[in-house]
Amino acid sequence: MTRSKLFALMLVVIMVMVAAAGTTSAQDEPLKIVLVVNGVLGDKSFFDSAQSGMERLIDEGYNVEVNTIELGTDEANREPGLADAMANLEYDVLITGTWQMGEFLGARVHQYPDKYFLMYDAPVPYADPAFCVEGCPNVYSVTYLQNEGSFLVGVYAAAVTTSGIEGTNEDVIIGALGGQDIPVINDFVVGYEQGACLVNPDVQRIVQYAGGWNDPATGKEIALAMYEQKADIVFQIAGGTGEGVFEAALEQDRYAIGVDSDQAALYVDDKPELANRILTSMMKNVGFSLYRAVDLHLKGELVYGAEEQLGIAEGGVGLAYNDIYFDNTPEYILDLIDAVEMAVDEGDISIISAFGDDAYAVGTACADMPEAAFDASMYLE
């Protein structure tokens, strides 16, 4: 995939299509959507990305009405909050996401057979009766191959730390800050580590977890320690906590990589100095995926009762290609990223995951990573 390649859209048609009666782009009544956020907006990351998909539908003139419900950071509010939202029947489609909400959703959707549900960032085990009472035929779920996107981040980070650009040192060290030590975050991390290993098998990787998602002070403290250990660049995978990583990067004249959305764009107007420390972000395109899902629903083409996975090729994940990225990245690294994307598309690189029978652990040695039919050294100075 090159920088200019358009997003390819691919449906994974593995079960029966359940078409919504009368749902077309020209329906007379607006499609009523409820977005249930098991957190708060304003994280400048994951949940804001989900909300951006709803805003895009409105901005582009779709005949929809959107009600966003924020459940807050108290975990005890998740199940009753979702139950209340589902019981309020003033909606056609209810959207929620992350693995913490899946069980609560699966236990109740059979009570609302005339409603449709979109689950993002977590798979739905449709065949498991303990999870889906009646198979969840009215639930569409979308997941993102975050290990693929993070693989690109790892390639980029390792290339930057060896580039000699201003703000880097001679030590080949990169960092990653996760919100929690959980499988989905570790899927980010192992992809990141593999990408770094592709560029330099001697790269040192510092990985720590903040233990939460809305604590920028802790994020800054951990990132400062990483920079003190000679890390040139830190990948934040910690939601609102990761805002502290950006502050630390600015304070130490080092670099950071954002997550889920183009996080530099969030600061470029009000805090341009901080924005310029965020060289790119790993785009987990939640907003795009939800916009796309609603568009397909309105056309009667969304496949319910099935999971869809979106990776690099489908536009589900990737890097933020903005002015900061292009202005601060040496041309040979830009070429390297393009070539790696193409190699992934063509199957020359098999990206590891923290999930499945062949799951990899965080901290796996570079020598124990799969060999790739790709030579990064030809792009490096």
Explain what this protein looks like in three dimensions.
- By secondary structure, this protein is an alpha/beta fold.
- It has 2 domains: 140 residues, Response regulator (Rossmann fold), CATH 3.40.50.2300; 182 residues, 3-Layer(aba) Sandwich (Rossmann fold), CATH 3.40.50.2300.
- Helix content is 33%, strand content 18%.
- The chain contains 11 helices and 12 strands.
- The strands form 2 sheets. It has a 6-stranded parallel beta sheet with strand order 2-1-3-4-5-11, sandwiched between helices. Strands 7-6-8-9-10-12 form a 6-stranded mixed beta sheet, with helices on both faces.
- Helix 7 links the parallel strand 8 and strand 9.
- Helix 4 runs antiparallel to helix 11.
- The longest helix is centred in the middle third of the chain and has 17 residues.
- The radius of gyration is 21 Å and the shape is globular.
- The relative contact order is 0.17.
